[in-house]
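Dear Dr. K.,

Following up on our conversation at the group meeting, I've run the structure prediction for Sulfoxide reductase catalytic subunit YedY from Urbifossiella limnaea. I'm pasting the input sequence below exactly as I used it, so you can double-check it against your construct before we proceed with anything downstream. Let me know if the numbering doesn't match what you have in your notebook.
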Amino acid sequence: MSRGRLLSRRNVLLAGAAAAGGLFLPRWASRDLPPTYGNLLRMGDNLTYVSHRLLLPGQALAREYGPRDITSFPVIFIDDRYQTNPDHPVQSEKYRRDHAAGHPDYKLTVEGLVARPRTYTLADLKRFPARTQITRHTCEEGWAAIGGWTGVQLNRVLELDAGLLPDARYVTFHCKDDYVDSIDLLDALHPQTILAYGMNGGALSVPHGAPVRLRVETQLGYKSMKYVEKIVVTSELDDGGEKGNIQNGWAWYAGI
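The predicted structure tokens came back this morning:
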């Protein structure tokens, strides 16, 4: 898919002008900007988004490392209550039993603006050609770690298998731990954006998002959603309602 379909230069320039001088433009007039929800700090994210899209090559690869560079990797949840709540889906005994059995009942649905809506098991995802990448995870909290991730490139699932429709623009991820977040098509089709089921040569652990998590190497760590269960392709941004990260002050675009 050409980058022109993903994000036109004209639209980026228009968005840049809006970001610089039109912070209070109505949504219909700033369609190419990330959502800000009226927060002044978040409005600054528009400039970051536009600058990255205008100045950086869209499909440039994040730096990759060797096996000797792998470091210890902290387990951080957006909401720490999930670590101590035994009733939470990913902390339940059933989830741990499923994990021990290799998640035989796992299903990932892909729907929305795709020609062929799909449901994938974990085995289905592993039948795609696998990509392994050792990359730096940069957390918004100030720490960083290097880990090895193995999974299927999201562009293989969306573009080659499910088939994106012409109006596709955003990809929204719904997760078992009740979080919802999205990325634009440029990042979704980036060659290092993968649905990871392996980490550091083994299976993905429950704390790190088993059985399947997203890896978006071009953005800060919280955009790499854990426990992905559903992917929806849309033409308009879905903010996720009360489950969406941006409702709690997180930037929608966290490019690095």
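Two things stood out to me. The mean pLDDT is 83. The first strand starts at residue 108 and ends at 112.

Best regards,
J.T.
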